[in-house]
């Protein structure tokens, strides 16, 4: 006897053999997958409390989003013509600085709805705020929404510390002077010990909550924005609590230094390693890539945002060829525009081909891996997530194949990467629980009115005086 059998669909397992079963089935008991196989065999072998008929549907592992900034969904699309740091200091920080805990809860609910409806069951939130994360009320507000939504989240507590790079702070002041009329929100960096103590306190309070779906990592916010002691302390915390750690790295040319690259700096601080996930890695050299590969450091590729903000093209094919594990991230919705890994897979597949004028780069199966099994490995959860196999956690997504734009298709990877849009998702399970049923997010029953959200967004724009931006 099992709790649920999903039966009759085309099952793309993403296991080591990349098996596709048609018709296939997935048997789930509690939070775990207990069997994957042909529909007839599993229906004969197991009785189920609930049968999900997936006929005419594609069944895949839940998608893993390796790099996200949740609050930014409330100012989606604003400041898109600006460079990275101009936007960061003159749009993002003023807006986020105006938000209260209720606004963060609203943003979290919008984000969870959109993610689940697009098949994302796990995400890593880079919770940097203005540099030092968020206060207790805001953290509780955000995490309670994630719990209700039923998905799997990593809360990476961001921090800057007092030993950080003074050159970068001078650069930040230069950027702020471009827009003197907005309400510039900032906060002083913490002392290193205080930053690490705060992170440890959050790990002690929240890691493993929500039936094990919530995790907490140390998240030093920016490679050059954290001292060597802060970086080393973050990695030590990750080791002690058996978690990972993440930071933004080499996103734009201005973040690199003449005497040492970001990756070199992280290596010198003892921060590179199998417990580290680096966001972006756009401006990395061949030597940097070798450092990532030899240390086992993982990378989050935020392709849509990097395109939107014009920071460059990360050398993902070169990283993969060197053996670096790379997962996809949607990053900042203010620039990406959506929380939709399915849409981002198409961008990744096409961008790298044209960037290197090589149509053979990043084939569809490779891109699909970056949103599933390789993404799971990138966050240190490859033994639990990212594929449909017995013993793994039951994060499963069903997509309706009866759509004109999906007919015909050559194989499931090509279908997902080049044809699908994300709105085909009908059913989502996370940790064995049905969290999207016939397109409805079951844990988020109080849907905010769109007019109310729009009004609150405009109020925050006014409070931050973003309506006075010069351009």
At a glance:
Helix 3 (101-117) packs parallel to helix 4 (136-149) and helix 6 (192-206) packs parallel to helix 7. The protein is of the alpha/beta class.
Could you please describe the fold and organization of this structure?
With 471 residues, the protein is α/β, with parallel strands linked by helices. It is built from 17 helices and 18 strands. It has helices spanning 39-45, 84-98, 101-117, 136-149, 166-176, 192-206, 228-241, 262-268, 286-295, 303-308, 316-322, 333-336, 341-355, 364-371, 373-378, 412-419, 450-463; strands at residues 2-12, 20-29, 32-38, 48-53, 57-61, 63-69, 120-127, 152-159, 214-220, 245-249, 276-280, 298-301, 326-328, 331-332, 396-400, 425-430, 433-437, 440-441. Strands 1, 2, 3, 4, 5, 15, 16, 17 and 18 form a nine-stranded mixed beta sheet that branches. The protein has a five-stranded parallel beta sheet with strand order 9-8-7-6-14. The chain has a four-stranded parallel beta sheet with strand order 10-11-12-13. Helix 3 runs parallel beside helix 4 (136-149). The radius of gyration is 22 Å and the shape is globular.
């Amino acid at each position: 006897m099992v709790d649920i059998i999903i039966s009759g669909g085309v099952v793309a397992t993403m296991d080591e053999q990349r098996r596709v079963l048609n018709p296939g089935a997935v048997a789930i008991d509690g939070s775990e997958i207990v069997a994957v196989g042909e529909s007839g065999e599993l229906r004969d072998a197991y009785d189920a409390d609930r049968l999900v008929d997936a006929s005419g549907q594609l069944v895949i592992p839940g998608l893993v989003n390796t790099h996200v900034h949740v609050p930014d969904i409330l100012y989606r699309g604003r400041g898109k013509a600006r460079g990275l740091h101009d936007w960061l200091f003159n749009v993002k920080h003023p807006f986020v600085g105006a938000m209260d805990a209720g606004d963060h809860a609203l943003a979290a609910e919008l984000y969870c709805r959109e993610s689940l409806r697009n098949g994302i069951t796990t995400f890593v939130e880079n919770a940097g705020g203005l540099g030092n994360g968020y206060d207790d009320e805001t953290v509780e507000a955000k995490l309670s929404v994630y719990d209700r939504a039923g998905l799997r989240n990593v809360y990476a507590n961001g921090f800057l510390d007092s030993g950080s790079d003074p050159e970068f702070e001078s650069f930040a002041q230069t950027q702020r002077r471009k827009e003197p009329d907005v309400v510039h929100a900032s906060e002083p960096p913490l002392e290193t010990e205080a930053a690490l103590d705060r992170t440890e306190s959050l790990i002690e309070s929240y890691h493993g909550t929500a039936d094990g779906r919530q995790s907490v990592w140390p998240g030093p916010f920016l490679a050059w924005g954290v001292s060597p002691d802060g970086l080393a302390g973050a990695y030590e915390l990750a080791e002690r609590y058996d978690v990972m750690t993440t930071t933004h790295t080499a996103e734009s040319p201005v973040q690199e230094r003449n005497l040492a690259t970001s990756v070199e700096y992280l290596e010198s601080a003892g921060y590179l390693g199998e417990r580290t996930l680096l966001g972006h890695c756009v401006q990395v050299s061949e030597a940097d890539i070798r450092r990532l590969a030899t240390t086992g450091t993982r990378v989050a590729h935020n392709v849509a945002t990097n395109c939107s903000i014009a920071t460059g093209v990360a050398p993902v094919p070169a990283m993969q060829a060197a053996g670096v594990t790379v997962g996809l991230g949607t990053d900042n919705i203010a620039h990406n525009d959506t929380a939709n890994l399915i849409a981002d897979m198409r961008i990744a597949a096409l961008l790298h081909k044209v960037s290197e004028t090589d149509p053979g780069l990043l084939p569809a199966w490779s891109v699909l891996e970056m949103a599933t099994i390789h993404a799971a490995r990138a966050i240190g959860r490859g033994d639990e997530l990212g594929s449909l196999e017995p013993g793994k956690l039951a994060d499963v997504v069903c997509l309706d194949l009866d759509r004109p734009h999906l007919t015909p298709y050559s194989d499931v990877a090509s279908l997902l990467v080049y044809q699908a849009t994300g709105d085909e998702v009908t059913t989502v399970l996370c940790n064995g629980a049905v969290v999207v049923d016939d397109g409805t997010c079951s844990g988020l029953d109080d849907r905010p009115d769109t007019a109310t959200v729009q009004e609150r967004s405009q109020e925050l724009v006014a409070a931050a005086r973003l309506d006075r931006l010069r351009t």
